[in-house]
UniProtKB/TrEMBL annotation:
Short name of one Pfam family: Sua5_yciO_yrdC
UniProt cross-references to NCBIfam families, sorted A to Z: L-threonylcarbamoyladenylate synthase (TIGR00057)
Organism: Boudabousia tangfeifanii
YrdC-like domain sequence ranges: 13-198
Taxonomic classification: Bacteria, Bacillati, Actinomycetota, Actinomycetes, Actinomycetales
Keyword RNA-binding in annotation: no
Protein name: L-threonylcarbamoyladenylate synthase
Length: 215
């Protein structure tokens, strides 16, 4: 049976622990974020990530991004830090910027056909950050099936996934309704992969302050 938790008031510690247990046992969860609702799984559990992709109707060619609670939590997943990563994280994390980096082979991420990369983000949502401090990294992608509209409410996500998800967290309507902006910094020529909640010009200005051009 699914567990439906409401965020009309903050989650209790007991509720957070229950969600963390579900994640650590390989279950899927739906949570509100600072952009749109997300469906998530333990990023370090390949079988759970497989279930996540299957629920969305996606293959390995479309790996999910990973959310963490801080830059410090992201660094073990990264091959090496860089001035570009540190600058973007300083200016936009927590926030709606997903940063694609070279992954750390020792982290043994198996999110799909990554080709040695991973998209990382620290969301600007206090409830989700509290949860991430307990669960660790989550593979978290928009709570919708392929070719469907992203969920801006828990009810909409339930219609998509039903019993495939073990826990739904209801935080009301999404405050933004737009996916994160995504920037690829896997080489010395950062480029925008997807424009979303953060305008491209803000990213361009941030990088220009350290003498880096956005392509």
């Amino acid at each position: 049976m699914n567990e439906l938790l409401y965020l009309r008031t903050p989650l209790t510690d007991t509720q957070r622990e229950r969600i963390a247990q579900i994640v650590k046992s390989g279950g899927l969860i739906v949570v509100p974020t600072d952009t749109i609702y997300g469906i998530g799984a333990n990023a370090l559990d390949p079988a759970a990530v497989d279930r996540l992709r299957a629920a969305k109707g996606r293959g390995r060619q479309m790996p999910p991004p990973v959310v963490v609670d801080s830059l410090e939590s992201a660094l073990p997943l990264v091959a090496s830090s860089s001035p570009i990563l540190e600058k973007l994280a300083k200016d936009f994390w927590p926030g709606a910027l997903s940063i694609i980096v070279r992954d750390n082979p020792e982290a043994k991420l198996d999110l799909g056909d990554l080709k040695g990369t991973v998209a990382l983000r620290v969301p600007q949502d206090d409830e989700l950050l509290e949860l991430l401090r307990i669960t660790g990294p989550l593979a978290l992608t928009s709570a919708n099936t392929t070719a469907s509209e992203p969920s801006i409410s828990c009810f909409q996500a339930q219609k998509y996934f039903g019993s495939k998800v073990s826990a739904y967290v209801d935080g009301g309507l999404s405050p933004c309704g737009i996916a994160s902006t995504m920037v690829d910094i896997t080489d010395d020529h950062p480029r925008i992969v997807r424009e979303g909640a953060i305008p491209v010009e803000r990213v361009r200005k941030s990088l220009s302050e350290i003498g880096v051009a956005l392509h």
